Amino acid sequence: MSYIIKNVAIAGAGGNLGKIVTPTFVSSGKFNVRVLTRQGSSTASLPEGVDVVEVDYSSPESLQSALAGQDAVISLITTTAAMTQLALIDAAIAAGVRRFVPSEFGSNLANPKTRANPVFKHKVVTEDYLVEKASTTDLTYTFFYNNAFLDWALRANFIVDFTRPNPQILDGGDKPFSATTMQSVADGLVGVMLHPEETKNRAVYIHDLVTSQNRLLELARQARPDRSWKPESVALDDLVAVAEKRMAQGNFGFETIGPFLKRAIADPECGGVFSDEQVDNELLGLKGKTDEFILELLKNHLK
Predict the structure, then answer these.
(1) Is the pLDDT of residue 237 over 80?
(2) Got the DSSP string for 221-257?
(3) Which is more confidently placed, 79 or 212?
(4) Collapsing DSSP states into helix, strand and coil, what is residue 157?
(5) Would residue 271 be called left, alpha or beta, if left means φ above 0 and alpha means ψ between -120 and 50 degrees?
(6) Which residues contact 301 (CB under 8 A, 6 or more apart)?
(7) What is the pLDDT of residues 194-233, one digit of tens each?
(8) How far apart are CA 83 and CA 296, in angstroms?
(9) Keywords in UniProt for this one (predicted)?
(10) Nearest-CA neighbor of 54 among 41, 45, 64?
(11) What is the largest CA-CA distance in the chain?
């Protein structure tokens, strides 16, 4: 039976993605937005028009009460707290919520090699839990894959470190990958909620464009012709091998996680290049971006 999603609860609204998703839903004028905040958290950055409810994530009763009357839950909880989503899923079921979007944003977890990536372990557990619950309850799910966060990756010098005169590029730098801005993720989530039947119990794929490290370097040189970068090619396998050793020693910092993320994004075997036929851009109302858009991002980033 088809249904309309009107009341949307957002968990993790204060994070990098949440700060874009929440105002996008409010400004759309199509939803009643409820934000779940941890007890004592600041709500200063939240837009007007949201219903703020404090929750105790260790209390099933608190979570169920917060989700009463909600049609959908969008989880933007950080990866480090991903396992708290299981309690949120249980509460959603108890409260009669119809759709749950877990915090899976990023790489293609439908790909077996990506699914085996250790940094996504908790995301895989969450996906499997939702699939199981959807088979026995009225709760449905949508998984959301957008591969690399384009704007965040440029700002963080993650895909290419433009602060270095000799930035590392992976295996020659020509590996293509899908990339998506955080605003497009937010717009795509609105599209999911407007098309509940078409996005029911499946993954949706979006991207703004397909690019590569070398293409980003070309655009950076256009943005800043006065600067010179001489990239150094490194083997992705070597980076991951070092990261595996660090992980085995109990080091879980970003210097360990980063190479695993780069593998999921840029290794051709990890499914990080979405075809035009694969993406759900048209269904979700997304038009994509051009190299000119990236050029403007780089001009601002490289000032």
Answers:
(1) yes
(2) HHH-TT-----EEE-HHHHHHHHHHHHHTT--SHHHH
(3) 212
(4) coil
(5) left
(6) 154, 155, 162
(7) 999 999 999 999 999 999 999 999 999 999 999 999 999 9
(8) 37
(9) NADP, Oxidoreductase
(10) 41
(11) 61
What confidence score (pLDDT) does residue 96 get? 97
What is the side-by-side order of every strand in the sheet holding 51-55?
A: 51-55, 32-38, 7-11, 72-75, 99-101, 140-145, 202-205
Question: Cα–Cα distance between 112 and 1 in angstroms, integer?
Answer: 32
Gyration radius of the chain's alpha carbons: 20
Q: Which amino acid is at 224?
A: R
CA 168/CA 236 separation, integer angstroms? 10
Distance separating alpha carbons of residues 5 and 193, to the nearest angstrom: 6
With a CB cutoff of 8 Å and minimum separation 6, the contacts of 300 are none
Model-level pTM greater than 0.85?
yes
What's the pLDDT at 42? Answer: 67
First and final CA of the chain: distance in angstroms? 53
